[in-house]
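Suppose you are handed only two things: the residues of a chain and a line of SMILES describing magnesium ion. What would the bound structure be? This form records exactly that question and the answer produced for it, so the two can be stored side by side and reused later without any lookup.

QUESTION INPUTS
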Amino acid sequence: MIGDAMTNLGSVAAGLMFLWTIFSGWLPTQFRDHVEQYVHRVRDYVYPYIDITFHEYEGDEIERSKAYAAIERFLSTNSSDRANRLRAKVFNDNESVVLSMDENVVVIDDFQDIKIWWTSKKNILQHQPLYSKRVDEEKRYYKLTCRREHRDTIKNAYLQHVLHEGKAIAVRTRQRKLYTNNKSENIGYGNRRSMWSHIIFEHPSTFDTLAMDPVKKEVILDDLRTFSESKDYYKKVGKSWKRGYLLHGPPGTGKSSMIAAMANLLEYDIYDLELSSVKDNTDLRKLLIETSSKSIIVIEDIDCSLDLTGQRKKKNEENKDDDETIDPILKKAQEEKEKNKGSEVTLSGLLNFVDGLWSACGSERLIVFTTNFLDKLDVALTRRGRMDMHIELSYCCFEAFKVLAKNYMDLESHELFGIISGLLKETNITPADVAEDLIRKSAKQDVESCLKNLINSLKKAKEEARLKAVKDARMKDEAGPSSC
Ligand SMILES: Nc1ncnc2c1ncn2[C@@H]1O[C@H](COP(=O)(O)OP(=O)(O)OP(=O)(O)O)[C@@H](O)[C@H]1O
Ligand SMILES: [Mg+2]
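ANSWER OUTPUT
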């Protein structure tokens, strides 16, 4: 009701000013200034307010307006008990509900005894590109209305207060997000739809639960903490504030778990980039621009994501012939690459993504690549400066086992630890396999049976490794010296 009345009065005032613009040209100059004063007085009498609008997207910008987002948060917190029509969003596994104002609802705020009216509005624009179906684009904005005489207070104090509060609310209620990129073709013309979709990031992995050599862990922790506190340092040395990590190691050694632990340590969002869904280098750049600061951009299994060298392509073609003898991990990589054939992203596009000019937009970002095959990557991709730190995640050592025993069974020592320590030195087993034996599978299962299961797995792995070594040696002997 209030909103409608104000809109009507506003239209009358706007109509009056429109008429004045047309007719003022006919009046002689000496009368015009005189009459104009009266016209303004009538307008102020009919509509003694000013309107200020804040659009979600300004002009051609691809980035959502920060002011709009801050106002949205401010109004969500301050309006939910005053507005009579609200929109609900459910967070944290259906445990908390956030209410925000619905479209065309007016909420009144008070500031230094001044009344401010806020309205949330939406316009629908229709695009009809040539040879394509019509696309409706929603343009949202907030409208602030206040009495004309309070203009300066609103401009100099109230808006500062709203933006500041909006920022503070964002810090208080920040929920970290895990983003994935939408397929390029699903983002149509004139569509403001983000290139990323997200869910709330709630992975429980931390550096405390990560099983690895404690000395190596400390070095990584130190590196991450130093990075996050080095804003001024990066500015001083003229480098954009980002750092590249290359995680490599066999499957199940904790590469993905480490990325989650990094995000939890630094409270960053994660952008999990699926290169096969990116059409070309231009789309790759757009994706980069849409990532926020304080984030980790991840490309998993980088060796499977791109045709990195012609040499490797040739090798893969050779491998196709003897499918039987192929390593299962290599086979997985080949299958992945087959899947990615639709993408035209090139190695140089990816190098530019990592440290080209556009990579300097935004700040405080980690870029993390993971691979099972370090030696298959192009050196241009892994050189220092691009990938600043190479981290090898390897098979389970005794120190790493102790972390898993503490996590999974709350166990710090046991008489079977000695046997396990000896077996771990003699065989290669991944932390994922160790975890599988230690995880409780029934309420009756006790610590001892878990440890005995692990000992059996270790003995089995040791025997398998011995048999494989014997087989390899026999094959080498049969092939004779010319095979080298
Ligand atoms: N270092 C580790 N510390 C703790 N848990 C681990 C570790 N490595 C593996 N795990 C356990 O094994 C599971 C698989 O690990 P993860 O996905 O991190 O391996 P990965 O190295 O990313 O494997 P892939 O190369 O196949 O992607 C995890 O969910 C975790 O429970
Ligand atoms: Mg992984």
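WHAT STANDS OUT: The pocket of magnesium ion (ligand 2) is lined by residues 255-256, 300, 370 (CB under 6 Å). The first strand starts at residue 49 and ends at 55.
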